[in-house]
Amino acid sequence: MRFVIIGAGRVGLRTARVLREEDHDVTIIERDEAMIRRARTQSFTVIDGDGSREAVLEEAGVADADALGALTGDLNVNFTACMIAKHHGCRTVMRIDEAYREGIYRKYAEEVDEVIYPERLGAIGAKNALLGGTIRAIADIAQHLQIVELTITDEAPVNGYSISELQLPGDATVLAFGKEEQPLEIPSEDESLAVGDRLVVLADFDVLSEVRQLLVGESSSEAATAIDADTTTGGLN
Question: Which residues form the RCK C-terminal domain (predicted)?
Answer without folding.
Answer: 135-217
